[in-house]
Design a protein that fits this description.
single chain; 131 residues; alpha/beta; 5-stranded parallel β-sheet; 5 helices; globular; Response regulator; phosphoprotein; Sig_transdc_resp-reg_receiver
C-alpha cells in the first residue's frame, strides 16, 4: 500500500520541490498539498470523523499566514484518534533557533528538516512510515 503524504506549506515552489523529493524517495506515494493550514486542519478533522483518508506523514512548514505551523500543531493536539497513525515532520528554513529547539522537543513532531527537503531526508521519513 502506498503511503499518503500531506505537504502543508504556503510556498508553491517549496511544495513542488518537496513533492519532487518525495517522488524520488517513493514513487508510489500519494501526495496532497495544502497552501493554507486552516484548510488542511479542516480536512484532517473530516478524515478523523470519517475514519479514512488519513495521511501517514504530514510535512509542515512553520511560517504561514492565517495559521502558522505551531498553531496547526496546537489544534491537532486537541484531536483524538490519530496520534499513532500519523507522523508529523517540520520542514522549514529555521530562521529562528527557537523554532529548531521547539521542533526538537515538541511531542507531536517526529523530526525536522531544513528546506529544501533532500532525498536523503525523504528516505529517512519513509524508512519509519507504517503503511
Amino acid at each position: 500500500m502506498a503511503p499518503t503524504v500531506w505537504i502543508i506549506d504556503d510556498d508553491l515552489v517549496s511544495q513542488f520541490a518537496t513533492e519532487y523529493c518525495i517522488r524520488q524517495a517513493n514513487s508510489s506515494a500519494i501526495v496532497k498539498s495544502f497552501d493554507k493550514a486552516p484548510e488542511s486542519l479542516q480536512t484532517f478533522q473530516e478524515c478523523i470523523k470519517q475514519g479514512k483518508g488519513m495521511p501517514q506523514v504530514i510535512l509542515l512548514d512553520l511560517v504561514m499566514p492565517e495559521m502558522d505551523g505551531w498553531e496547526f500543531l496546537a489544534e491537532i493536539e486537541k484531536l483524538v484518534g490519530w496520534e499513532d497513525k500519523v507522523s508529523v515532520y517540520i520542514i522549514s528554513a529555521f530562521a529562528k533557533s527557537k523554532d529548531r529547539d521547539l521542533a526538537k522537543t515538541h511531542p507531536l513532531v517526529r523530526g525536522y528538516f531544513d528546506k529544501p527537503l533532500s532525498k536523503v531526508s525523504a528516505d529517512k521519513i519513509f524508512s519509519s512510515v507504517k503503511v
